[in-house]
Amino acid sequence: MLTDNHSIRYYQRLTDALVDLWRRGDRYSELQIYMDGYLASLRHSNALEPYLIHRLEAEVARFLRDPSNFELAMPQTQTEADYLR
User: Fold this and answer.
1) Which residues of 13-26 are buried (b: 16+ CB within 10 A; e: fewer)?
2) Nearest to 2 by CA among 54, 39, 40, 74
3) For 85, how many CA atoms within 13 A lie in the half-sphere containing its CB?
4) Distances (CA, A) of 43 to 13, 28, 34, 46, 57
5) Tens digits of residue pLDDT in 27-77
6) What is the DSSP code string of 33-78?
7) pLDDT of the residue at 84
8) How many CA atoms lie within 13 A of 55 on its CB side?
9) Which of 52, 68, 74, 81 is most buried (most C-beta within 10 Å)?
10) Residue 81: its pLDDT value, please?
11) Which residues contact 53 (CB under 8 A, 6 or more apart)?
C-alpha cells in the first residue's frame, strides 16, 4: 500500500496513462514497456526514494494484472419514475 503523497500522485498518473493507452489500442506488452520506462525515469531523476519506487512498481504491476481496470464502463440508464401513480 502506498502512503507517501508523491508516490500516490505518480501511481495515479501512471495508471491513468495506462488506461488511456489501452483505450487507444495499445496492448499489454506496450503497457509494460511504458510502465518500465516511467519507473526508470523516476529512478534516474531521483524523484522518489528507491524503496518507494519499488513499492510503486509492485502496486502498478498489480493494477496492470487486474483486467477489470481496463474494461469499458457501461452506463446504466435510469428508468423514469412514474409520477402519475
Assistant:
1) ebbeebeebbeeee
2) 54
3) 3
4) 16, 22, 14, 5, 11
5) 999 999 999 999 999 999 998 999 999 999 999 999 999 988 888 766 666
6) HHHHHHHHHHHHHT-S-HHHHHHHHHHHHHHHH-GGGGSPP-PPPP
7) 60
8) 13
9) 52
10) 60
11) 39, 42, 43
Residue with cell 508523491: 6
Complete DSSP assignment for 13-35:
HHHHHHHHHHHTT--HHHHHHHH
CB atoms within 10 A of CB 57: 17
Specify the pTM.
Answer: 0.81
| Residue 45 to residue 27: CA distance in whole angstroms | 27
In this prediction, residue 79 has a pLDDT band, given cuts at 50, 70 and 90, of low
Query: Amino acid identity, residue 56?
Result: L
